Amino acid sequence: MDSKNVVAFQVVTFCICLAVANSVEFSYPAVFNFGDSNSDTGELAAGMGFLVVPPYGKNYFKTPSGRFCDGRLIVDFLMDAMKLPFLNAYMDSVGLPNFQHGCNFAAAGSTILPATATSISPFGFGVQVFQFLRFRALALQFLQVSGKKFDQYVPTEDYFEKGLYMFDIGQNDLAGAFYSKTLDQILASIPTILLEFETGIKKLYDSGARNFWIHNTGPLGCLPQIVAKFGTNPSKLDELGCVSSLNQAATAFNIQLQSFCSKFKGQYPDANVTHVDIFTIKSNLIANYSKYDVEFLISYCDMPLESCDEPHAAATSVLLILLTIVF
């Protein structure tokens, strides 16, 4: 993606975030984020001990920032909308990270289901929840022992209770499964995936979380690496050039996720649950890309990064072929 298209995408994303933010009460003292590469601000790189290299970060940070993105992620724009600093990754200890206004547990490649020996990320949703519980326990312990000495570095108990808990995860459970499973098998696995998600959400609720901001998954069949792998047969593509079966799985997942959100609100009336329809937002961007001054719709480069030309190079690398990223 060239710089013109990146800027257009980021402006549109910023406007979307502001529109959503203005539609609900959007003033929180802290944010605790869980997810995958769509909202990873450095977790996988720090946790696995590797460097993210250019062109990542070139369009905003001017240097790789741990994000698998040329610029900012949706979570960054949301933090801006709340006038809060960008979230530091839980595992990142370099650069004097400050967690007063929250912490990011999202790691690229993560799934809702527990990681396996072949998983890209060992930080599945359950692990991220346990990381949060440890983070919360230690933060409150430091504050209890040292009084106000640490309150400028970690959230207070009040911040944990009044904070926003954000989730953008599940796409890797579906997209990754297509490499080894049929559509029917993946559709049958969705209740199990969401049961794992429900278990994690309830653990957070039991720890005091009350404000939940839950993204559904996007049109996975439109991801460039998915089109490159599964879209060689034109009969498998929809009118936008996306892989129909993956979008069918994403739609089924989203329907059941929305049902869970409704059920959860019914079970816990004191919980505030905001369900964000990312699928519709991204589908609109893809279907109407020319309105946003984007010059091409779905492009990919399956060569080494240095071999790709500039429009592709800014949005691709070996990891992009492996990881499902925000587009």
TrEMBL record:
InterPro entries per the UniProt record, alphabetical: GDSL, SGNH_hydro_sf
Matching Gene3D superfamilies: SGNH hydrolase
UniProt organism field: Glycine soja (Wild soybean)
Alphabetical keyword list: Glycoprotein, Signal
Gene Ontology molecular function: hydrolase activity, acting on ester bonds
Protein name per Swiss-Prot or TrEMBL: GDSL esterase/lipase isoform B
Pfam families hit by this protein: Lipase_GDSL
Residues in the signal sequence: 1-23
Recorded family membership: Belongs to the 'GDSL' lipolytic enzyme family.
